[in-house]
Amino acid sequence: MRRITRITTVGIASAALALSVTACGGNSSDAGSGSDGDKAAIAYDIGGRGDQSFNDAAYAGLAKAEKDLDIQGSEAEPSDGEGDADKVQRLTELARSGNNPVIGVGFAYAPAIKKVAPKFPKTTFGIIDDASVTGENIANIVFNEEQGSYLAGVAAAKVSKSKTVGFIGGVETPLIKKFEAGFIQGVKDTDASVNVLPQYLTQPPDFGGFSKPDLGKAAAQGQLDKKADVIYSAAGLAGSGAIEAVSKAGKWNIGVDSDQYQQKGLAPYKASILTSVTKDIEDAVFNLIKSVKDGKPETGEIRYGLDKNGVALSMSNPAFADMKDVIAAVDKAKQEIIDGKITVKTAP
Fold it and tell me: Does the pLDDT at position 15 exceed 50?
């Protein structure tokens, strides 16, 4: 029997009790112990499950592990306006309940994992998109987002008719700047005459730019008004608003993290999603869970780039798959990046 228990910061103590009562495959652990890999948990980033992007990709990895590895999965949702103390409490309860590994989805979990991981030395903690916090029981799952974004820039420059394309970042952080940097470089290397309009929805410490579709929609409309005919959004749930606006304008979207052409929540707009810069978060999560279950837990930096298909451009939209000249340009750029002939910038 496998079960998913959803935990939020509000009422987390009672949720932890529920876990210990309903869980199949282990009792709550003390601070020095971990499960044998029969229970695994993911703690979501801003926007939570249902963002049609980053968090949903992590969930897919957990769901795959439940099916293929016969593990019991738990999910923990973020709360509005939460701080590091809330994340510390969430990760502590997940570890104390016997989950192993416990995976924080997003760099925002770094301070919490730094505090919690040493208290549970037999539990593996994974963190996606952060390599700053390290430890013997910490797995840093990171991606070369700039490489996939470069390919998106190549595609955008090739299909743009107005010679103007847009980039929307959810929050102006070093991680999202990697998306911007790669995209702009790919555009300019392909056609220097194409103008790129970069825009961020919020600035730290306001991370609402990852969770508010209305902000994405307004930003996209502003770029459409400036004649952008291809818009690449790296904004989590907020990106869905941009996708809606671009679709209604009859222009091209480039999605992010998941293959957004395939996301059910975006089905009304799928025809406008030319391609997506995918990160293989699903397999990264699954691989970490499997490593723990196999008794050989992954730790340290685990990097996914173009060379391992850890980042890529999706080909689900038949319209994109039929653009032979665009695909040829993308394939050429991909090979040159892998061969080291092109070095992609990580900052604009």
Answer: no
